[in-house]
């Protein structure tokens, strides 16, 4: 498994497995505690696994957790997604940095997103399954959402949005969220 640091987001990593392919399809390891440990992360810190199933054009995000935040490993297990990370850690050397990825079921690449970063994605294929491994139990009172179309972020979403949650549709701007976090 190859590990690379994500340019533009301090402390974020891409974990790229080496699939073994033959006439049956492929097999690959998508999580390896030793590899995770090799970049200074605690593999035992992850306490919850979740999955989302989306159809083409669905947009989820931009989400993060207040308080201690939430670190996560994100992988598209089927289909393809356009994935976005925004660094909202004021003391980070990449504060307000953005990074964009295409994650797919073909590559099974996993993205590590540090606590304090916002995350969102859009499904690029007719169906896309996205898996999450999260380091804290979910607490809905800590949910924070930022407008996906905030002009300050200028995220180049590749498709028209076909569907999103009401919470995402009504999300405040980045400036409003940052002001709330300061106060």
UniProtKB/TrEMBL annotation:
GO molecular function, one term: dTDP-4-dehydrorhamnose 3,5-epimerase activity
Listed Pfam families: dTDP_sugar_isom
Gene Ontology BP annotations: dTDP-rhamnose biosynthetic process; polysaccharide biosynthetic process
Record key words, sorted: Isomerase
Keyword Isomerase attached: yes
InterPro entries: RmlC-like, RmlC-like_jellyroll, RmlC_Cupin_sf
Gene3D superfamilies xrefs: Jelly Rolls
Family according to the record: Belongs to the dTDP-4-dehydrorhamnose 3,5-epimerase family.
Superkingdom per UniProt: Bacteria
Source species of the chain: Streptomyces curacoi
Protein name: dTDP-4-dehydrorhamnose 3,5-epimerase
One cellular component (GO) term of this entry: cytosol
Region span, Disordered: 163-183
Positions annotated as active site in the UniProt record: 63 (proton acceptor), 132 (proton donor)
